[in-house]
Fold these 4 entries.
Entry 1:
Amino acid sequence: MRVKLFAACAASFLFAVGCSTERPPTSAPRTANAQDLGPGFHKVRDGIYTFAPDQTTTTCSMVVTNDGVLMIDSCNNSLDSKKMLAAVKKVTDKPIRFLVDTEVHNDHTWNHFVFSPPAVVFNAQGAAEGMKKGLDPKRAETLAKQSPDVAEVVKNYKFIAPQIEYKDRLTIQLGERTFEVIYLKNVHSEADSIIWLPKERVLFAGSAANVKTMINLRPHVRFNDVFAGYKVMRALNPEVVVPGHGQPTTAKIFDEYEGFYTLLMKRVDEMSKKGKSLDEIKKELKMPEYAEWAGQDRLGVNIDVAYATLKGK
Ligand SMILES: [Zn+2]
């Protein structure tokens, strides 16, 4: 019987990872107030907690189910990962079964080793390759010099790429919850995933939009792909949107970013039509309407992407 169950699970593993082991689903997850978990934690629903110390720092999250925990991203740094691990243990005695990455960059993926094993890591096709590209082999060594606390965590560092890469879409059924994992093309990194909980109406939206912060856009990003991503996310009609950086918010961030990028492209287009070079545009273009956004030093890379999008390169 046990063998049969395992075989059925193995067969459906890629598409529905909900097969439980021998343990039957037990009681509902324990709930905790976010303040019990420490500063930066937010409870967005029973059993769903996010952690981001401030508006700009990478968010990592946990979703507790009757059959274990699914995490989203592995936190900004090793000490934050330790805080998250402690918070998970406060909320449930069940294991972290899965960890889904919303992108490939270090601040979301470098700390997999804190959670995996036991967690199995997922992201879209191309994630491992993207992670390897940005890998600094001396990073653990460098970080260890920051403090004895950091050194204590990173001494266990091991590069862990997603064990499972999916294409386009993946449904994870864990305990009583359903997670729709959806690939968004070219919105931020080499492999970007959003995680949608249809019953709870909570969307983990990754870094295609954050909270009033200019994003460090990589040269391959194109605004038409980003707008297509916003369209997919708006169509889900989420009540809560958890961005890749910062505190939980709503779908209004997609409108804010689309407004910012649209105005930016309009200005770049006007200046370009007057014969100005990209370098001249980068020196002269201002976005005073967004002066209160964080990350002003990234306006230049945003202009690069606007320019490339307009030129259809
Ligand atoms: Zn990133």
Entry 2:
Amino acid sequence: MVSVLQSNPSLKLKWHYLEFCQKILGHQYVITNENVIAAVETATFETSQQVRFVIQPGSPQEVQACLKAAQLFGIHIHPVSQGYNWGYGSQVPDENLSVVMNLSRLNQIKVDGKNATVTLGPGVTQQQLFEYLRSNYPHLFFSLTGSSPYSSIIGNAIDAGYANGLNVIRWNHVISLEAILPSGELLKTGFDALPNASTAGISRYGLGPDLKGLFRQSNLGIVTEMTLELSLAPAYLQIFYFSIDEEEQLGELTDQLHNLKQTGLIESNWILLHGYRILAEVSQFPWQETDAQRTLDRNLMLKLLRQQQIPGWSGVYNGVFAIYSPTLRHAEAMKADIHEVLNNKVSRLKTFTVDQSQIKKLRWNRNLEIPELTHKLLKGRLLTFAGIPVQGSIPISYWRKRNSIPEIMDLDRDRCGFIWLAVTAPASGTDALTIVPVIEHFFNDYGFEPMIVLDGVNSREMYVMTSLVYDREVAGRDEQARKCFERLAAELRTMGYYQYRWPKALSVENALPERNDDYASVFAKLQSSILGD
Ligand SMILES: Cc1cc2nc3c(=O)[nH]c(=O)nc-3n(C[C@H](O)[C@H](O)[C@H](O)COP(=O)(O)OP(=O)(O)OC[C@H]3O[C@@H](n4cnc5c(N)ncnc54)[C@H](O)[C@@H]3O)c2cc1C
């Protein structure tokens, strides 16, 4: 967040702001400890931004006071909700010498059980909301990302995050929010600020322009509260697992999944994961069997994957989606229809069904056995689609690490190299077959395994995501990863595939082509009127 006074913050000003924050927040919530600062300056890729110190306000009023003062002192503020933005920059600010505002103390949760909504603070994690709903509103659940259970919901929504199952693109399910601008002004969207408004917290749009979009991926203000949609727990949850053996089948399968989604048969997102990605979820790089300097050979990858004996998932691409049913009749009819459509498009197809009482038990004890669901990876996906936090797909980050995966995974601390390259594309077989070989070519060139994921997030669009996964301890790999990212992103842009989320702290050439509108000048005007530059 840029201040009104663009004066070079001198050491003197820095100390003034520090003292101000100490006075307002108390010394324990102004962190200057070198080890903590070093951790906050560390991401899953190379960065050079330095952090002055970290502040942890405990109320919106404290956020407001700290923002107003920052503007006077000419200090950049970088907000994080929980700071688990792994692969996109972790807690590292975009601007050098920022103060990081950690909002994890703002963790209030309020649920409207009748209208299935939750109003929460930025510090609320996926795990906290899960536990709260399990104890207080067992008929409701919240969709989960594949990231850490301790990552936030608000930070994820603001940074274009997406979840699995229902309510996939988080921002689409934000009803309203409260934000504080650098001037200290407070803004509420929808009808939330009007006295006695009967649709406060349930109506997305008040009168006039919808201002909540200003706060998505913008850093124009700090969101101190957000109201989001929840989902009704289903009577039956079915998970479909399938795979294909030949890359040529990918086009037809993508078209078929798109069709299932467009016709409304599938309500959840559909996901296709490359074999490399699945292998990395269940094992680490086979150091003994191959040359570590190169990309793991495709045939060896498939052999190792098949040794894992994951029912339904042993192909070059492996897919999953879920059906949420209110009745058994609905569940059975959907299963029959989907099997009819998919059977001859895939090499294997398996369905597992759990009912409400099983889901309830799993919510309290995720170690419970599910008959026939023998592999932990498949069970992990079922739990995720049921809104029960697991470790997500975080273990893939340790794929190229020489030591084993620690109990508590911290990618920044453990120097796991991880960069997300995520583009949006039309959900079509032609697009899948156009993009995938390009990613494979670049990854192969630079010696990274193409852990590609195609994710049908809505009935028109798919996210094509791939992650550069490496060991930051290996000299030169940070640089190689950055170059691969830069070149591949540029190539995909020329093909018309743009990133929808960007690791801003990564110093790369983000040369977007010239737009054929006046976005830049319009946004600059908005920015200067909000930030006061
Ligand atoms: C293996 C792996 C799997 C992953 N899977 C997923 C996935 O399935 N879906 C997904 O979306 N992501 C995924 N991620 C990426 C990332 O870990 C998540 O998006 C995570 O939720 C981000 O961390 P956070 O929620 O703690 O947000 P934060 O790090 O707190 O915030 C993210 C950014 O949003 C802005 N911000 C945060 N809070 C505020 C605020 N209150 N006001 C204004 N701006 C704010 C800041 O710029 C901040 O840098 C994955 C990462 C890895 C490594």
Entry 3:
Amino acid sequence: MKNPFLCLAPLIVCFTVTAAALPQGGPIAGSLDNIDTSGSPDGIVPLPGTVHPTITNVFDRYTKITADNGNPIHFLIHANVSNAKVAHARRILEQHMTDVPGSTYGSDKRALRESMGNLRATMMFFPTIDSLDNGGPQVDQFLDDYEAPLQDLLGDEIILPGSVRYVGPNPERDASYEELVHLMHGYGLIPTMPALQSQIENAASHAVSAGLYSPPPGLPAADIPFEYLAFTMETWYGMWAHEPNNGEYVFSSRLEMEAGDPNIVSILEGFFPPFHSHRAEVVATFSGTFHAREASNLEYSFKSRYLNHVELLGTANTALRGNREDGTLVGNSGNNRMQGAGGQDHLDGQAGFDTGDYIGPQADYGVYLMDGILTVEDTVPNRDGLDRLVNFEQLQFTDGAVQLDTYVDTANHYCASTANSTGALAQIHVVGSPLVSHQDLSLTASNLPSSQFGYFLCSQSPGLIVGPGGSQGNLCLGGVIGRFVTQVQMSGSDGTMGIDVNMAAMPDPAQAVIQPGETWHFACWFRDLDPTPTSNFTGGVSVQFQ
Ligand SMILES: [Ca+2]
Ligand SMILES: [Ca+2]
């Protein structure tokens, strides 16, 4: 049978069917259910031999996003599309589908995600339009017979961050955002958010009648809301600022849209995150300084300014500049210079000799080292904000550089426990700031047996009690011991657990408030089976608060 859900034109999707008429899969699409991708570092695996030949005749690899109810959203990959491009696209679809807390329409997208999984919505990756349109009888047979909704994305339209086509003098548009919005829109949003869909339709008709949006010639009227949503989403994320006279939409920036097309802006703001939450991996061939913020002489920065999680691949001595939002910047194995700029940023230099760049003199900054994590706080408002740095070697201020071994760690690990059933010694770490005024302290425990209950403990005195109450471990606390029993945790499959500590209401003495100058000691108690039921502890860690 002819697949009724497919349009072959590269920018056009067919949405002429209702949700009730959509299939749930069949012998072909159904053969993709339950493929295990968990053993692959990037989640991409060869298609197993159990998959129907109609699929394996065309594609050789597979990945998926699993909806909340366990149903898969399939990704089918042609041999000539790279894993890096597919993983990039998958991260973008995950962003489109992820809740945006506090937003008007997007605060709970669970039904949307489950709709896509229930329908077995499928992305197919071909290298070029020719390999799709003129791919031969096996491609045609796949397109005709596959029983679930399909959306195509072409490898040569996926523009990876930092690649020549991304940063070059004529930066190109990455089609991933658009095509993945189409899949999400058709099979997630429409079946589950009819009120939002009617607002999109109204905004689209208004934009067309007001001459703001000119649909591509030949676009069926029913498809206009889809193309309009995707194009305005791209514009909102700065993807058309390099080509303001594109002929399709009269606006090219967020500011212009807010003034001239507020209907769609309130829809976009109400559904998508204002800055990209997906990880952007800057390709290993990039050299120089990657700007995740606007630089007037760099056209690519009109779009990269909305990236908030950027990681450098490869080994080049690359620099990375963040924007004024809270962000995550990760270096590569080269010597990196990194600047978080405003907001609260997490910076990880990885291997190499890495330098954190600051735009004021050293005296303007508070620098605190706790358990290997450096906090750098700019005391001048609205400038560098507060950064958390790991794996850095140096800070560069305007009046000089400071080596990180200058700073003394305010956390101290002491008193190891004993091996638990995993064979390892459980570890405890403190994350946050030793400055009481920051009110920022978390505890994490690792090397725990999985799926076991436990809770954290605190005291103002260290100690060593061997095997308390029949435990196989050692309790490294003395004096009055507080138990965070209102925050009982279960360890995950990775053998970790963690809590945020309310420094103004410690468990014992009840409601104690941590004061500057005090030293507190922490450990974690957890159940274990070794092989009979028992318990164990992490070692101890102390923090001297300031
Ligand atoms: Ca920032
Ligand atoms: Ca590095």
Entry 4:
Amino acid sequence: MAGDAPSANRNERVDEGTTAAGEQPAPTLAWAREYDPSWQPAFTESTFGALVQVAGDCPRCHHHTAMNFPAVIPSSTVKAAGQVVTMFCKCGLPHEGRPDDDFGCGAYWGAVAEL
Ligand SMILES: [Zn+2]
Ligand SMILES: [Zn+2]
């Protein structure tokens, strides 16, 4: 626990000023399993049959990412609305140092979904 001191972030440059388009692949950010409680991205929910897709831009690498959740969670104690889900970045773009079983930049955050 509590091992997230922002010490040596190698090669992490923040280029401000050109974030209007949103489609441009930013220079690759190194992969890191990161969580920031201030990440509350405004994601869009769409329902596809038995799945709810939550989609938007990753708050860390700003690539487009989407995750699917079952619209009905097979658990009896779940409330119908305002389910907090954990989202992981799955932007699919290469991030340096990424493990084989990950598909994004390593960021994760909580999102409220109406499942
Ligand atoms: Zn990414
Ligand atoms: Zn990301």
